[in-house]
Backbone:
């Protein structure tokens, strides 16, 4: 709370000197990164800035970076080259935040090659941004505010949300898993969970403001409160609900049950769970809670037990498939989406075929595919059996063809059915067409009307296409 007090002081100081300032935030990472961007926007708007998409008009440009794969770095350095002219011509304040700023070699590169950058902060020091911004405005001082230690959970940050129907709520931060390819545990620190009362209050507030869909976010959502429980066996957290009732919440499964009772919220999603922690109580909560969507994002990464071991994923091909079967047996109509990495060090043709095999067996609704990218500081980066770029790309293309076939096949099951669709707004390309999503996150386009926006409505699916379904609305 002390930090927020300090933040408020600097926000008021900036407000006093700010003359109709404009800002732009460029989000480059995952949904947690997007959620952080909404908080960065919150701090800027509280300080009297208004948003612009035109970088040439912005007084402050913030890059919220990601470092999970190399292309994220390429994008940042490309963009920095672009904004240099705004700095030179307009004196724009250039700010870089996000996960990449926890990497020493990147911050050093910035200092050497991009000295025009004014402020740098990592995800753990985001709350200090108003102080840094104020000092940069009044003293024209270069600031690097990075904390190597584990950050605390900061409550009460201002937030300006991008959407008025769907909102994301971070429930935990950090990761303890250390998958050997992944940089996240190094830049986001150890797992720490928010107090369930704070989460409840935030979702309640969103519901009162008309939000219909909530996505609970964390690097490993099903280890919500697990570290805290390990530190304190008798962890006894209760949430006082709006109706005065008190409920105990000491796990992800119980959190889902709690959020499910909030009036006004119609859909609950969560990303990402880890297959190794997918306990029966979580499966039961998904089954019992009507608002929890029947789509589970279950990152596979690889279908080969050998590769999974080298990745430190802590499950085998069979354990993953058994988990999927168990979930399918307990929850009717449940669907899955996943993340896959191709070309992990040592991946043989046989290993790769195991991945294709799991994809065929599970039949995903959506597959996010990545080519393995070496990350400085991770265990896999030091492995000697790195895969040739040509082989990686060839496997990626084969994976992509199979994924497209599986997804198109899967889309056929919707034709002729009636789906509950949350209407999100008008199509960007056609004024008559409205767009929404099924519980399984499939885009549905249909001819509708304005007053349907923000409502969950039944739509008959008339036809399927690769990236969307066509629905029919009957009055
Ligand atoms: N915590 C989440 C997501 C982490 S990052 C989880 O465990 O599922 C999102 C995805 O990026 C990962 O699931 C993985 O598929 C991919 N990814 C992470 N590191 C990568 C790397 N070094 N190269 C390629 N893809 C990577
Ligand atoms: Fe990275 Fe693995 Fe943690 Fe996900 S679970 S953030 S892939 S280390
Ligand atoms: Fe990227 Fe950080 Fe998210 S590295 S994927 S923005 S947690």
Residues:
């Amino acid at each position: 709370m002390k930090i927020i007090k300090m933040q408020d002081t600097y926000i008021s100081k900036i407000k006093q000197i700010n003359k109709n300032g404009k800002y732009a935030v460029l989000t480059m990472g995952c949904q947690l990164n997007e959620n952080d961007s909404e908080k960065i926007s919150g701090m800027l708007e509280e300080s009297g800035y208004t948003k612009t998409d035109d970088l040439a008009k912005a007084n402050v440009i913030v890059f919220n970076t990601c470092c999970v794969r190399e292309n994220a770095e390429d994008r940042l350095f490309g963009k920095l080259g672009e904004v240099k002219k705004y700095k030179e011509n307009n004196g724009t304040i250039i700010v870089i935040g996000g996960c990449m700023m926890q990497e020493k070699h990147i911050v050093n590169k910035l200092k050497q090659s991009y000295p025009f950058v004014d402020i740098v902060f990592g995800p753990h020091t985001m709350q200090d941004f108003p102080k840094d911004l104020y000092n940069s405005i009044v003293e024209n001082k270069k600031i690097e505010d990075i904390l190597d230690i584990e950050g605390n959970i900061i409550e009460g940050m201002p937030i300006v949300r991008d959407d008025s129907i769907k909102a994301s709520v971070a429930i935990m931060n950090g990761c303890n898993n250390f998958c050997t390819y992944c940089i996240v545990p190094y830049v986001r620190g150890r797992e720490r969970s928010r107090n369930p009362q704070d989460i409840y209050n935030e979702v309640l507030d969103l519901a009162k403001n008309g939000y219909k869909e909530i996505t609970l976010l964390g690097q490993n959502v099903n280890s919500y409160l697990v570290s805290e429980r390990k530190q304190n066996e008798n962890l006894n957290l209760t949430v006082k609900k709006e109706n005065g009732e008190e409920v105990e919440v000491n796990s992800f499964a119980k959190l889902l049950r709690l959020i499910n009772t909030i009036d006004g919220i119609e859909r609950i999603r969560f990303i990402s769970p880890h297959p190794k922690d997918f306990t029966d109580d979580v499966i039961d909560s998904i089954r019992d809670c009507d608002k929890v969507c029947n789509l589970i994002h279950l990152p596979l990464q690889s279908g080969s037990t050998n590769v999974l071991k080298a990745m430190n994923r802590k499950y085998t091909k069979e354990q993953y498939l058994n988990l999927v079967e168990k979930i399918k047996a307990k929850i009717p109509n449940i669907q899955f989406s996943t993340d896959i990495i191709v070309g992990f060090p040592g991946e043989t043709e046989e290993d790769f075929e195991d991945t294709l095999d799991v994809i065929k067996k599970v039949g995903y609704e959506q597959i996010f595919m990545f080519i393995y990218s070496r990350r400085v500081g991770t265990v896999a980066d030091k492995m000697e059996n790195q895969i040739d770029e040509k082989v990686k790309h060839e496997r990626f293309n084969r994976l992509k063809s199979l994924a497209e076939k599986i997804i198109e096949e899967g889309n056929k099951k919707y034709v002729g059915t009636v789906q509950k669709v949350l209407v999100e707004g008008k199509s960007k390309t056609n004024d008559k067409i409205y767009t929404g999503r099924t519980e399984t996150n499939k885009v549905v386009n249909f001819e509708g009307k304005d007053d349907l926006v923000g409502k969950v409505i039944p739509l008959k699916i008339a036809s399927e296409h690769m990236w969307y379904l066509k629905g029919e609305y009957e009055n």
